[in-house]
DNA sequence: CGCTTTAATGATCGATCGATGAACAAGATC
DNA sequence: GATCTTGTTCATCGATCGATCATTAAAGCG
């Protein structure tokens, strides 16, 4: 076998002298994967090794390591919440069960992500303010409107509370925690489990599920 | 005011030359609090400072930092699962709703703990094998028997699955995550929220809740 | 007290950390 | 191809890490 030239077989990026924006983006991309794997205490020399560049180059694009971490936060938090969700949640032309199913399917497709899940947990443990802001924003713009819609749809005398919704939410998020933080086996079809949880939740308030 | 001697006012331990077992235990105790706060990358010098001893003393009792971390694991995982729970779960003289309420009340009182919650998360992110063993043990000895009991009590044609139970469990655990990992405000009376979640869960299988 | 034991300290090692600045070289322009 | 710009490397700094070991001094005992 053989005959092909083994030279330059590395599929890695060995090109040098990239445009600054491109290089900066490349560093952040790799930093997301790197910090997600080893934590925010990961060493810049190891990150540079993965990038195939020298450690000092990183500090040409980010003054301090903390600046790089902030850039990682910005990248990873971006596009994690869709602007379409408030509209979807309040679309009363569709049954609430369907709305919740679609919402949590989209939500799950965005947050059941290895890098996001772990960096969110690392930054939460580190006391980053972004976590609190994210969760507060989630509660105000998504859970509270969702609660209102469920109450409107509910004919039951007992109404759900925001904490009830947090409980449902936690049960769903826990799927991602089991998978990406604890690395435990999880269901092949999480949407099925999510729909069952939504169904149980709505059913207990006499609302039809998805 | 005054008149009292300010000398030796330090309530801290400044006594030297403790019995080895006592000193070792003291180090582990403080290490639990310390690592829970700053993570497993916490520095031994900072830990020694909190203990009021020199850094080198720590290495008289633990050959390596990893040994100390293992001791912290052992301490913090100890007594976290009660041997009484399997008996309680299978005690059919009591309604299943009551059994679940009592179980999760006891369970919550043990795991809704700042140090446990954070060290469990830190070690999970670090890939410690103890997390997987803990969760597997939890599933085998508690959730699976609980599932069996619910199925026995359920008269509904649709039976709960183990994943359904994980969803309930996750919703409950998420209370502790919100409190101790994300440091967000949580309900004053978590037991009330837990009982509501149990009630919704059992209700969806036509079983009376707590 | 004088002696022994050993818990605890103080000094320090080699490795590694984040960060800096001079030297180098790839690529564009003429 | 000579020149200039600037992305990248190389060498290195001071600080700090986990870990080691000789020294010190507190407690137990005759």
TrEMBL record, chains A, B:
Alphabetically ordered keywords of this record: DNA-binding
Task: Report whether Signal shows up as a keyword of the record.
Answer: no
**Mind telling me which Pfam families this protein's record contains?**
TetR_N
Source domain of life is Bacteria
Q: Does the keyword Glycosyltransferase apply?
A: no
The annotated regions of Basic and acidic residues compositional bias extend over 7-22
Molecular function (Gene Ontology), one example: DNA-binding transcription factor activity
Q: Where is the HTH tetR-type domain?
A: 21-80
Q: Where DNA binds (residue ranges)? A: 43-62
What ranges does the record give for the region Disordered, renumbered to this chain?
1-22
- The molecule here is called TetR family transcriptional regulator
Record lineage: Bacteria, Pseudomonadati, Pseudomonadota, Alphaproteobacteria, Hyphomicrobiales
